[in-house]
Design a protein that fits this description.
Layout: H1 3-36, H2 39-75, H3 84-105, H4 107-116, H5 120-150
Length: 154
């Protein structure tokens, strides 16, 4: 197996874990939690889900740019030689990472602190911000996957 094959494998797995995890949480877990759990239990659930999911996101946001840029430099000798779809993927991916960093360091911290203090309205507001931003990142993530899989054919 070549280095580029290893980079590509790690890159794709990191994207699947991050984007797939967001889609699962937002589209499948959230509606069931809203339907079946009162706010205190639901907010505690989300704090626990994020506590388990976010280490995988941290790994993903480390692997994605690292493996992506390693592939760019080994295939095109840098971004100057890379095709447009690589630039689009990179830019959108960096934007997604910035959104995650904001989620982690602002509303997620507020959610965690509010749940620990039983401040349910504050926790609910933080969760609503997270939900919106995860929705944005899902759209961006699906766009990046579309560009990654079909961009070379444009």
């Amino acid at each position: 197996m070549t280095l580029n094959a290893i980079y590509n494998l790690l890159h794709v797995l990191a994207a699947v874990v991050w984007v797939g995890g967001m889609i699962f949480a937002h589209t499948f877990l959230r509606p069931v939690a809203v339907a079946q759990l009162e706010p205190p239990f639901r907010l505690k659930l989300w704090k626990g889900v994020f506590k388990r999911f976010f280490p995988f996101v941290w790994l993903s946001i480390t692997l994605l740019p690292l493996t992506g840029f390693l592939m760019v430099y080994s295939i095109w000798q840098g971004m100057a030689g890379a095709p447009l779809y690589i630039h689009l993927m990179s830019g959108l991916g960096i934007f997604m990472i910035v959104i995650f960093l904001y989620v982690y360091f602002s509303p997620y911290q507020k959610l965690s602190q509010a749940v620990d203090a039983n401040q349910w309205p504050v926790a609910g507001d933080a969760l609503a911000k997270i939900r919106f931003l995860v929705g944005v990142n899902i759209i961006l993530g699906l766009l990046v996957v579309s560009i990654a899989s079909g961009g070379r054919y444009l």
